[in-house]
């Protein structure tokens, strides 16, 4: 017990020290930026006005202090209210604040996650990190190629195969279960993809002007492809998870009782599915829909009806959630079918 | 389109799973009702922080107790989720406050902006709303992990009454480790889908420097990481609580 605790404490200290050093490096990366950066040293707030003194951190004026005056809205929808210690970007004349420097906050979050995964996740944590890095690399490659003019839907299909391959074979290792799960994942993804494909092409006006961040100008085809890619990537993680669980379970069942009837197999799969689908669908629900809360509130405070927002702004999030949930459910029968097909065929030979 | 997908979802729920998968439909509708109620309440001007915390408690109750019935296991999972959610709430508040993550977007031809007649003077604290969004995402993810660990530890304690607390904690951690990567990956891909268009927009029209310091990017990354960190943090919390609760009882 004592050795265990000492071990945890040593790990904790090592992770803490490494994390702090990495964080401080990003925090003091002022010289990497060409834009002037200031650190706010004093703030005087009166009403909705702020008087700010900032110390310039890079460039020729480094070390000088500048006074800045600004106004903000109490609700902070479009504006920022600054605090002492904030690091901000300034315009070239050093008179106004153009944005907040957030890179060290992003870095802090990344370091926190890496520390927890590598420090306490053990071997699994290491593999999860490796998968993460691989996924992100593929993801970046996708966006860069898109800018070069490659069709996004084509790239999404290819990279979904890659993602599934990396996740399944790297984490679980090559085995029969992994192989079957891989095919199930592709199958389920194809079903969801085709269903949404048909629905999107049948809908005359998708209202893409409400899809956040859509790069303009866009053609309807481009927008359709982008939206379909979003749906497929969003489903992928959940589908892989369910595919592995149900396939592993059915393979185990068939191996233990080779003469199991199809009905008994389906019933057992239902039993396992009951344990995981409920919470899984809820994860998909919250993760997809939480992001639309602010849009609802700001619209409704501006006297735009609930139904209008639901119909236009929330449409895309709701569709992504529904597609994800359908993906989870469709994976279950596919896993049972695939595992009984593969295994029984093998025995007949 | 949404109605067709809804019909497919309902049909699959009833066909594919057993009774409890069908129950998921009820849980989902209840959660959706809570979500709508929260939006109404906040837009009517009720204090967002209080409404959010109350709503999240209700949602946790629905997902844990209604979906899985009230028993020792769900009670332990409930406490674990509340503890971690409270700790993470503090962390979220630090990130949102320090990183200025509240407010609306500036990227792309966004419809919601001041020049389109959307007034910023809405009298609702967007700081609280930003916290609510992150907390909401987090809770959905940690409930899943907490339930898996608590039921796992419960089964182990039932089959091995001679196990001591420490052994139970270790097996809880082991269960957590085996589901960790799949949960984190599920989250990652949902966010990757959501932010795919944002990334493309940034790489087309903005520099890397603008991207990593932008509110949208920082909010997305920090949101997913907070959820993932919550999923990791709940593993020891749920293991310890479950071990404490179940080791003393010989079942």
TrEMBL record, chain A:
InterPro entries noted in UniProt: YibE_F
One Pfam family named in its UniProt record: YibE_F
Record's keyword terms, sorted: Membrane, Transmembrane, Transmembrane helix
Transmembrane domains' residue ranges: 12-30, 104-121, 126-146, 152-171, 178-201, 231-254, 275-298, 318-343
Record bears the keyword Endoplasmic reticulum: no
Protein name: YibE/F family protein
Native species: Lentihominibacter faecis
């Amino acid at each position: 017990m004592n050795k265990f605790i000492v071990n945890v404490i040593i790990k904790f200290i090592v992770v803490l020290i490494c994390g702090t050093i990495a964080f401080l490096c990003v925090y003091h990366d002022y010289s990497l930026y060409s834009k002037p950066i200031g650190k706010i040293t004093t703030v005087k707030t009166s009403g909705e006005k702020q008087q700010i003194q900032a110390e310039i951190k890079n460039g020729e004026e480094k070390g000088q202090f500048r006074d800045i005056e600004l106004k903000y809205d109490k609700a902070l929808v479009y504006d920022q209210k600054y605090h002492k210690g904030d690091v901000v970007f300034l315009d070239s004349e050093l008179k106004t604040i153009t944005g907040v420097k957030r890179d060290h906050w992003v870095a802090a979050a990344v370091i926190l996650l890496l520390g927890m995964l590598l420090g306490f996740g053990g071997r699994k944590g290491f593999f999860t990190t490796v998968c993460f890095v691989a996924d992100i690399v593929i993801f970046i490659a996708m966006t860069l190629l898109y800018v070069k003019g490659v069709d996004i839907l084509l790239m999404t299909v290819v990279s979904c195969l890659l993602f599934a391959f990396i996740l399944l074979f790297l984490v679980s290792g090559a085995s029969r279960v992994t192989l079957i799960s891989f095919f199930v994942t592709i199958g389920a993804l194809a079903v969801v993809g085709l269903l949404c494909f048909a629905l999107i092409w049948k809908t005359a006006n998708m209202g893409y002007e409400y899809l956040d961040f859509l790069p303009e100008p866009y053609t309807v085809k481009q927008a359709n492809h982008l939206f379909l890619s979003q749906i497929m990537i969003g489903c992928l993680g959940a589908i892989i998870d369910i595919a592995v669980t149900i396939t592993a379970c059915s393979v185990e069942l068939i191996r233990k009782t080779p003469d199991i009837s199809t009905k008994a197999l389906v019933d057992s799969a239902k039993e396992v599915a009951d344990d995981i689908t409920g919470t899984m669908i809820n994860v998909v629900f919250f993760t997809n829909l939480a992001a639309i809360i602010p849009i609802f509130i700001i619209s409704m405070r501006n006297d735009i009806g609930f139904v209008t927002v639901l119909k236009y702004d929330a449409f895309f999030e709701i569709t992504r959630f529904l597609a994800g949930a359908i993906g989870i459910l469709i994976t279950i029968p596919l896993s049972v079918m695939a595992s009984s097909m593969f295994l029984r065929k093998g025995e007949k030979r | 389109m949404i109605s067709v997908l809804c019909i497919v979802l309902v049909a699959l729920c009833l066909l594919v799973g057993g009774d409890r998968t069908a129950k998921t439909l009820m849980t989902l509708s209840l959660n959706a009702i809570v979500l709508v109620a929260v939006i109404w309440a906040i837009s009517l001007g009720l204090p967002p922080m209080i409404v959010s915390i109350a709503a999240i408690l209700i949602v946790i109750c629905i997902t844990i107790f209604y979906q899985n019935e009230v028993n020792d296991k769900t009670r332990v999972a409930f406490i674990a989720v509340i503890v971690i959610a409270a700790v993470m709430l503090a962390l979220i508040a630090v990130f949102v406050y320090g990183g200025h993550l509240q407010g609306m977007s500036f990227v792309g031809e966004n419809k919601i902006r001041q020049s389109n007649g959307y007034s910023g003077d809405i009298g609702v604290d967007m700081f609280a709303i930003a916290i609510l969004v992150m907390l909401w995402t987090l809770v959905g993810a940690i409930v899943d992990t907490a339930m898996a660990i608590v039921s796992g530890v419960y089964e182990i304690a039932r089959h091995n009454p001679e196990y001591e607390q420490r052994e139970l904690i270790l097996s809880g951690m082991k269960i957590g480790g085996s589901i960790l990567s799949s949960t984190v990956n599920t989250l990652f891909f949902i966010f990757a889908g959501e932010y795919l268009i944002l990334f493309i927009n940034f790489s087309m029209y903005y520099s890397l420097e603008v991207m990593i310091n932008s509110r949208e990017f920082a909010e997305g990354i920090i949101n997913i990481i907070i959820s993932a960190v919550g999923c990791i943090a709940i593993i020891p919390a749920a293991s310890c609580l479950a071990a404490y609760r179940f080791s003393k009882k010989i079942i």
